[in-house]
Amino acid sequence: MIRLLIFSVFILSLIINPLYAERVKDVASVAGIRSNHLVGYGLVVGLDGSGDSSASFTDDSMRNMLEQLGISLPPGANLPIKNVAAVSLSAELPPFTKPGQKIDVNISSIGNSKNLRGGTLLMAPLKGADGQIYAMAQGNLVVLGLSAGGDDGSSVTINIPTGGRIPNGAMVEREVPTSFVNGSNSITLNLYRADFTTAHRLAETINDTMGLGTAQAMDASSVKVSAPRDLSQKVSYLSMLENLTFYPGKAPAKIVVNARTGTVVIGQNVIVQPAVVSHGNLIVTITNDPTISQPPAFSNGETVVVPKSDIDVAVNNKGAFVFNLGVTLDEVVRAVNNIGASPAELVAILEALKVAGALNAELIII
């Protein structure tokens, strides 16, 4: 009977406070396995007069390209660069990408080109932070933006026509070495969000599954795990490891306020201590109604204008509400909505609660 009662209490606690298990791959990554940024410079040709009209570096780039192709130009020759645009290239090289595989490329105009729609990127190298070439980009641009204008000066622009993308537009030429293949007998899992509770639970879960002493939490964001040296065994080992499920620690109580857009995001663990909040607007209206003062007949007085002001005070009281001990997120939102507070007024209420010591959450205003 006692066991049944304990089991019922446990099931009831799960219903009231549900736990959500997460996979290791969703909350952590293996140290040393990451993407690398690539950058480059190139020329987009085939534009219908919307290219660079007065960019000297575009003219120099065209001359250098033609000379490399064996075409010599006479000194001082003018090149029709209105159909050409100088662009910057950017791409992200995923880990373990092998030569011959393709990646996407982003294209952005760096001259005074008005529109890249219909253009073709000529072969351009993509370099890493070490200055080495890791991919070669070329292909037709996909531009979602549109720009059109009339002879009278009217124009319309949709999205950004000076930027585009080439899906699978770069061929990888070099592989980035990683520490995964160096034969080490351990790996390190780095949490996406540093948390001591999450790191501790992750290490416990791995030890319970793989054996005691397999994992050790190094700090709030790193867990060191023993792994086989053999590469094929390490791959299968990581496959099992990244699919383990556990219960991460709850995020700290935070309230994020975007003062520009009025967006307010309140975390789940925000609790308000006992407090009384009164919210209302005081409106003071002053109306000037001047009157004329006429002196008595046959007197030495003068007719003057006497100022007269009427003052009206109106209180738009939106009421008061009480926060009792342990108030949750739902009750806070419901109380604020009942008084019809705007996002700006909600920010003022939250700031006042924080100053009064009744709000235990971190208030972040961006």
Features:
366 residues, alpha+beta, Gyrase A, domain 2, disordered N terminus
Cα Rg: 34 Å
Strand fraction equals 35-45%
The residue ranges in which pLDDT falls below 50 over 5 or more consecutive positions are 1-18
Percent helix among the residues?
A: 10-25%
Instruction: Give the strand line-up of the largest sheet.
Output: 3-4-5-10-7-6
What does this 3D model show about the protein?
This protein has 366 residues and is of the alpha+beta class. It has three domains: 18-31 and 180-246, Gyrase A, domain 2 (2-Layer Sandwich); 36-172, no CATH class; 254-365, no CATH class. The chain has seven helices and 21 strands. The chain has helices at residues 2-16, 24-27, 56-68, 196-210, 231-242, 329-338, 343-355, and strands at 22-23, 28-30, 36-45, 85-93, 102-109, 120-127, 133-140, 146-149, 155-158, 163-172, 186-191, 215-217, 222-226, 245-246, 254-258, 263-266, 275-288, 291-293, 304-306, 309-323, 362-365. The strands form seven sheets. Strands 3-4-5-10-7-6 form a six-stranded antiparallel beta barrel. A four-stranded antiparallel sheet has the order 2-11-13-12. A three-stranded mixed sheet has the order 16-15-21, covered by helices on one side. A hairpin with a 4-residue loop joins strand 12 and strand 13 (222-226).
Secondary structure layout plus pairing:
Blueprint: H1 2-16, E1 22-23, H2 24-27, E2 28-30, E3 36-45, H3 56-68, E4 85-93, E5 102-109, E6 120-127, E7 133-140, E8 146-149, E9 155-158, E10 163-172, E11 186-191, H4 196-210, E12 215-217, E13 222-226, H5 231-242, E14 245-246, E15 254-258, E16 263-266, E17 275-288, E18 291-293, E19 304-306, E20 309-323, H6 329-338, H7 343-355, E21 362-365
Parallel strand pairs: 15-21
Antiparallel strand pairs: 1-14, 2-11, 3-4, 3-6, 4-5, 5-10, 6-7, 7-10, 8-9, 11-13, 12-13, 15-16, 17-20, 18-19
